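Weekly structure sync, notes
Attendees: PL (lead), two postdocs, one rotation student
Agenda item 3: pending single-chain targets
PL asked that the sequence for the first pending target be pasted directly into the notes so everyone works from the same version. It is reproduced below exactly as submitted, 331 residues in total.
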Amino acid sequence: MSLSIIKPGLLDTIQDMGRYGYSSWGINPGGVMDGYAARVANMLVGNDPGEAVMEIHFPGAHILFEQNALISITGADFTPTLNEDEPVSTWRPIVVRRNTLLHFPKWQSGSRCYLAVHGGFCVPRWLNSYSTNLKAGAGGFHGRKLDKGDELPFKENSIYFAGLLKETREYQPLNWRVDTGRTYHLPHEILFTIGNEWPQLTHSSQRDMLENNFTIHPFSDRMGYQLRGVPLKRQHTTELVSSGVSFGTIQLLPDGQLILLMADHQTTGGYPRIGHVISSQLPKLAQLRPSDSIQFSMVDMPTAEELLFSQEHELNIIQRACYDHLNQLVC
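Predicted structure, written out during the meeting:
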């Protein structure tokens, strides 16, 4: 049981929630950019939330399902379409028949979407993760992006899906859907906590960061978003010792511009860390595109923790509801 890539997309890779514990070796965590969308995609099809998914950028691949499958598509809306003319909804489970073709003909919103299949993709782990590390050429599917002719086998199914398909239908959406309004609300407002070097900014630069918009530069990628806006200044241009950085770290470059580190960030950095995007805001940050604007708002640590706990509580509810729906369907 598998799917085949009929036509490759811009950058489609196998990812999971990341490869942790190897930063001391210079190996970054990597993993999906939008952890919320990836986890929900897995929940919708009855997988463990950390199972491997396909991360798809626009224009996306043309994908042929070689067997019946239960799938879900979450994250960005690239108008997913089955067999050339059947648009399907995102954020809900869908049963597709063998020889069904999935493609993404039109961008609507967001920057990357996620395809999950029931059981997950059968690819080898590298350092306890399925995620593709493109620079190392390891993990995922042969350590590279997906290309024409690639066949990705699925793990064994625990649910028989053929009985859910009507004879005249090539696919069947199931009757539940996830509401993501809270997570992606106010997509351009990004909350952050101050970093170690925030006090080194001049008072006017601190005010400029909070009162002005910053634009994502076209050269941005999975490693980092280069931001363009009012140049910020430090009170003293002292050299810093390289130290650990993470997904969401906001660094100040020598020219006064900012770089916002993303999933494929380096393990250490020597630029001033003036802030850190809070964890609950990383999903909507991951869905921003080049030329989109960002308005930074500062919050304290208790607020950041409260927002993260609330998001995790929501995910737990979604997971329980999806499992209950699938169990009722099977019974």
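Discussion points:
- The chain has two domains: 2-180, 189-299.
- The radius of gyration is 21 Å.
Action: rotation student to compare against the earlier draft before next sync.
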